[in-house]
Amino acid sequence: MMTQELFREDAMLLHCDATVTGVGEGGVLLDRTVCYPLGGGQAGDTGWLIAGEQRWRVTDTRKSKEQPGAIVHLIDGDPPALGAAVRVEVDAARREAHRRFHTATHLLCALLPYPVDGCSITETYARLDFHTDEPFDKDAIQAGLDRLVAEAHPVRHRWITEAELDANPGLVRSMSVQPPRGLGRVRVLEIDGVDLQPCGGTHVSNTAQIGAVVVTRIEKKAAKTRRVVLGFAG
């Protein structure tokens, strides 16, 4: 059974009611969830499952290896029973960090027009690896980020058909993560006047909500790879 992915349409939704549809792979499968599973460079959500007085800590969220389209919530302790009704709650602070960092990486893509060959979005930092041998100016990148955040560009997602994506192959910036195929449509993230590319992650709704992010370092990882690492100010 596939899991309804509520986070795809509303990254601000932090809880929902769900039913346990399976137990295995170290966790619990649900019919619907607000928890984002590890993928696309973004870490999985953590949080809680709640049933009455019982609480289970969700230590990670992953895509099921055994049931395509299902999401596994890794938990501490013995799982709830099959068919049990539970409340799913996301760790709000972790989700907020992921949303801010992920949108900030899209701003980096707008500032640095090179293919992306690596990405990691976590609670404490984000990084993008760009396929280029061009040198990067840390101060210039920081100034660009500060400007795009301050300009308060609206951020929204929409869906396009796979045919539309095929007609616009330049929308795909990543060399290592390709949009999922076979569903007939692809989710794209649009930062008004700044960036448009396929993305299934969680984001803020306006660049101003990213707040103060800093370029903590720039590294030459290989002859054709330049890494930019972001952190939060303070």
UniProtKB/TrEMBL annotation:
Its main location: cytoplasm. This is Alanine--tRNA ligase. The keyword Zinc applies. Pfam families: tRNA-synt_2c (PF01411), tRNA_SAD (PF07973). InterPro entries: Ala-tRNA-synth_IIc_core (IPR018165), Ala-tRNA-synth_IIc_N (IPR018164), Alanyl-tRNA_Editing_Enzymes (IPR051335), Thr/Ala-tRNA-synth_IIc_edit (IPR018163), Transl_B-barrel_sf (IPR009000), tRNA_SAD (IPR012947). Keywords: Metal-binding, Zinc. Its cofactor is Zn(2+). Residues 1-228 form the Alanyl-transfer RNA synthetases family profile domain. The keyword Zinc applies. It is found in: Cytoplasm.
